[in-house]
Amino acid sequence: MARTIAAPRGTRDLLPEETPAWDRAESLARELSRRYGFERIEIPLFERVVLFARGLGESSDAVEKEMFRVSGATGSEEERAEWALRPEPTAGLVRAFIEHGMHVRPGPLRLTLIGPMFRYDRPQAGRYRQFTQWDVEVIGDPGPAVDAELVELAHRFYAELGLTDVVAHVNSIGDAACRPAYRAALVEYFGRHVDRLTEDSRRRLAVNPLRVLDDKQLVPELADSAPKSVDYLCDACRAHFRAVLDLLDALALRHIVDHRLVRGLDYYTRTTFEFFVAGHEGQQDALGGGGRYDGLVELLGGRPTPGIGFGIGLDRTVRAMEAQGVELPPQPASLAVVGVGDDVADRLLVASRLRDRRLSVRPDGTTRKLGKQLEAAAKLGATWAVIVGDELAQDRVGLKDLVTGEQVTVGVDEVAARVSG
Ligand code: AMP
Which of 63, 124, 133, 137 to mutate to test the pocket of ligand 1 (most atoms within 8 A of CB)? Predict the structure, then answer.
């Protein structure tokens, strides 16, 4: 036998037994997108590296360490270094917004997509190289109402899925007016404690000091007494954050202010937020996160336009559903069509008529004994067996409940009502 080939490290196959929970999360995401007035958009899975470098920041982990490069088999070194799989959707989405002149549309625009993201990171539990996000973005709305509305949307998503104990961590990291003072305060503070920083943090301190707060290995006391961004906000940013917090209170949305929540990407301004199950608040546990990016459209060459969005990780959401034993809606009835002897054409015809009625049907196409066909149907998880026999001349079939074993004879056109009732 030839040697088998394993899936790439950090990827996962979604097996049929896992897809019902996944489908539930994905269909709820689509349904809520509709309920909140978001329109679907799709963008490529890969973009120019320079888009991510400029949008996310050269010093972000996503660009510096986790770019998943793609290249053609031919072309120069430079050409082959030009593309990367998207680590997140916002930069590509804003690129599309600018490229298609979408600023002339009636706004604010509400856009959504669900799809895979790629980060060439060290794989571990809850951290994959390919993972799926439900992403929502509102472009052209300065807030603060929409900031609270997005937190409410994410909370509703988790609640309607059946997850309990979800808490939003929120923070404000200011804007171009006040961030420099905060940055300077961090440089000064961590500069005094360089010997207690990791190698990684020392480097971050030089290029992007906010991200020292992101370092999982940061000594807790050092983190606790670090300058807090909220103490450095300019009047406009402070008023914005106050308004967001008041709205979260008014909507009774569970949240805490988390001073370490700076988010890893350069484009964020003002409001940042992440969602966790209370008590599971490590970095690999975030179920989703997002924030405001009022400078990004301009940074990528468009007119100054505010924006805000979030990405919810479906892989981690589904994991949390499993961990909390969330009940899934019952699966619709599944039917097997079985028969006696050489009546395969009849079975296919009956199956076809049942599918006209929107039922899920698998006909048995073999000539094995009826008992064997029923056994196989039960093993495959069918809940009902439709038995085709002589009564078909009167347009009637046997209908056996494979759970209780009960059997009746009914008209073919009555089957749908019987199994759905
Ligand atoms: P981020 O923008 O990095 O905060 O990502 C938003 C959400 O996507 C996170 O809260 C996670 O739920 C999910 N996510 C991010 N990176 C990964 C990953 N490597 N593997 C699985 N899920 C991820």
Answer: 133
